[in-house]
Amino acid sequence: MAIDSYIQRMFGDDSPTFGTSKVLLVGAGGIGCELLKDLIMMNIGEIHVLDLDTIDLSNLNRQFLFRHKDIKQSKSKTAIKAVEFFNYKSKLFSYHGSVMDKIMFPLSFFQQFNVIYNALDNLEARFYVNRISLYLNIPLYESGTTGLKGQVQPIYPYLTECFNCIPKETPKTFPVCTIRSTPSKPVHCITWAKDFLFSQLFGEGDPNDIPSPDVSEFTNEEEAKASANEVNELSDLRKLVDDSKFSDFDFLIKIFNKIFINDIERLIKIDDLWKSREKPSFLPLGDYLNLLKSTGDSKIDRVYNSKDLDQSSIESIFKIYIASTLRLSDRLRNGEKLEFDKDDIDTLNYVMSTSNLRSLIFGIQTKSEFDVKQIAGNIIPAVATMNAIMAGFSALSSVNYYIEKDNIERVSKSKMIFDSSASDKVVNSSKLVKPNPSCSACSVVKGIVKLNLSNLKLSDLRDKLLSKYNYDDDVEIMTLDSRLLYDYDIEENLEKKLSDFLNDGTVLLINDSDEKLDIIELYVVNDSSSTEIVLPELSIPPSKKLRNQGTNDDDDDIEDGVVENGDSDTLNKDESSTVASSTIVLEDNDDDLIIEEPNPKRRKIN
Ligand SMILES: Nc1ncnc2c1ncn2[C@@H]1O[C@H](COP(=O)(O)OP(=O)(O)OP(=O)(O)O)[C@@H](O)[C@H]1O
Ligand SMILES: [Zn+2]
Fold it and tell me: Is-above-0.90 flag for pTM?
C-alpha cells in the first residue's frame, strides 16, 4: 500500500500537513539514518539532511543506510542516495558540513524550515541548534541515546523547556595528581597514557612548548616538582623522537627508563603519597631489557601487535609497547601528524601497552585491547534498537505539530519520551515543563539585528539601541563570548567600524547600565544592502535584579513599612509592581523620608 494511503487511513481527511512541510535533520548517524527513513514514511515535503562526517567502518553495524563500499563517503549524501529506491514523495537535500559553520549555514539557512530534528552526538552542536531554534522560533525535536538509555524532547520555544533549561552532566574528569602520581583504577592509567604520554611524545605541537603542570593542582610540593621534572624530560625525549637522523635502538630504552623507572623512583621517594596507599613497584623486566640491549634493533618484532597479546604476560605487553613505539616514531619521522584514534592500531596499541605497564607498576588490573579502546575512545555502546525506538518517537512526537501547528499552545502539551527501567515497559513519558526562568538561553529576550557592518560605527549601533528601546541612560555592549565592546568607561571603540568587532552570526548581549531593563540578546545579520540598522521589536522585561528586589521588598513591606512609588508607564501591567520598587521610599523612625536611589552595579569583562 502506498504511504499516502497509510497516512490517510491513520489520520482520515484531516491529514496533517506533512507534504507541505520543509524540515532539517541534523546528523545522519545512528539516530539520523532511522529518522530519515521515518520522515520519508511520513511523506514530509522536503527533508534537508546535514552532517559533517564521512562513513567509518564502525558505523556500519547500526547506520543501516550505509554499506562497506560507502566508507569514507559523506554521510548526508550517502544517506539520501541510499533511500532512493523507497517509494516516497519527499524531496531530499544533503549538506556536508558542521551545523555550526556560520558561513555555510547562516541564520537565513535555518529560516526556511518549519521543524528541526536533532540527531547529534555532542552537547556543543545541540546547544547551538537549540539557540537557533529559539532565535527563529522553530520547534526542535531533540533526541539522543547512550546504550540502552534514550530520550526524545520536543522543544516548543518559550512554551516548553529548551535544551539548555536543564543542567547537563559534563564528562567525568580526574584530578591531575591522580593521573600523574597516584592512579588507582585502569581508567586513570589509560587517561595518563592517552592524554599525557601519547600526546606529549607523539602528538602535534612544539616539544619546547609542553606546558608545565599547574602547581596549585597538587597538594604536595615535592609531587608538583616531580611532575614538572617529568614534563621537562619528556620534552627532551620528544626531541629525540622528532630527530629524523635518529634510528638508534637506545632511544627505546631511554624512553622506557624515564617513564617506567626514573619517574616511578621519584614518586616512591615522596613518603606522604604512600601513607595510605600501596607503593608502586618496578616491572620485573630486567632480563628482558638486557636481552634486548644486547641483541639490538635487529631482533625487535616491529609488527608485533595486539592480535598477539597475551594479557597475562608482562613480556607480551612490553613487546607491543616496543613495536608500537617504533611504528609511531617511524610515522612521525615520515612527516605524519599523529593524534590518538581508537581505530588506528598503532596509537591504540601504544596506549593499551603503556597504560597496562603503568597498571602493573601500581598494582592495578590490566585491560584488554577491547576495553582500552572503549575507555580511551570514550565509546558508549550504541544500540541499534534504541536508536530506532527514539528516532521513531521523535518522528511520532512531531505528528502533533503537523496536525495542529496553528494551536501551538495545545501542541506544547505533548510529552517527552525516555527509556524505562521498569521490566514491563520499554519507555516512559512525562509532560513537557515550562521553561526554566533562569535559563541563560531561553529566559533572555532575543532578536535579530540587520545592519551593514562595514558601513557603520559602534556609536551608530549604541545610539540606535538607546533610542529604540528607551534606555534611560546608557548600555553595555558585549559579545556572547564575553568581549566587552562598549560601556561608559570604554569609549575608544565608539568610532571604530562594526566590522572590526563583529561578523555575520556574532551574538551581542545588551545590558542596561541602569540595571532597570533586562539583558537582551541580538543575533547580528550582516546585510550589505541595508542602509540603516534594523532592530527587532522587543518587549524588554525589567531586570532580574529589580524583579528580585521587588519580591524582597514585598516581604520588607510588612517589617519596615516600605511604601512603594514609581513610574510604571513603560511596563507590562503584571510587572509594574516589581519594577516600581526601583525608587523606594523608606520611612525611618523619625518620620523623615529617605529616597534610596537604585545603585547600578556594573560588570566588566576584559
Ligand atoms: N556540528 C555538527 N554538524 C553536523 N553533524 C554533526 C555535528 N556534530 C556531530 N554531527 C553528526 O551527528 C551524528 C551523530 O551520530 P552518532 O551518534 O551515531 O555518531 P557517529 O559519529 O556516527 O558514531 P560513533 O561516534 O559511534 O563513531 C554523526 O554522524 C556526526 O557526524
Ligand atoms: Zn531554556
Answer: no
